[in-house]
Amino acid sequence: MSMSTGNGWVQLRQQTRSLEAQTDTLFHTYSRFASASNIPPRPTEEETKTESQIQELLEKRENLISQLTRLLDSEALLTASALKQNNLTRHRETLLEHRHTLVRLRSSIAEARGRANLLSNVRSDIDAYRSSNPETAEADYMLDERSRIDRSHGVADSVLSQAYAVNEQFGVQREMLGNVQRRIVGAAGKVPGINGLIGRIGAKKRRDGIILGGFIAFCMLVFLYFM
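Predicted structure:
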């Protein structure tokens, strides 16, 4: 008798664990209906089928747990192990948790569908009002255009402000470079022989400029002559 009871317990537990895993999989599918971006105004066939399958699995699990409870109660008090009691308690807690999950997901889907329907109804009312009041629709269009223009102006003002700030920074940098250059020239003037060297470099540049200008003028004359 105990051997038959043990085999029955193992089989019932295997069925219960299998149904728990199937319930988790269906919950994953069912939860996607609540997070859908374009939830339909009425439950789809897939949504209704998934909810029915979850409900059916919960009922089957409750029946299996009842069988496990009767099987455990039929055993002698000394042979009923604490492990079996713990397993049965866990199955009951999991079933209760899954029932709460179904209620929560069902409520979330209903709220999402209600928000979507409300938004759709508001848009429909606005479109109907604009259709029956073309003057108001035109005024709303002008207000929308004015808002877009104001936003464009705001962006342009921001870009100009940034450009002015950059230009001001360039001016500060030019002034700093000018001060550095003046300091370098002043310091160079205090070193003996630097002024003469700078003068010779300037004279050489002027002489090279005169030679280059003369050469360019000669080339132009030759070109004009052969024209």
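Summary: The chain is about 90% helix and 0% strand.
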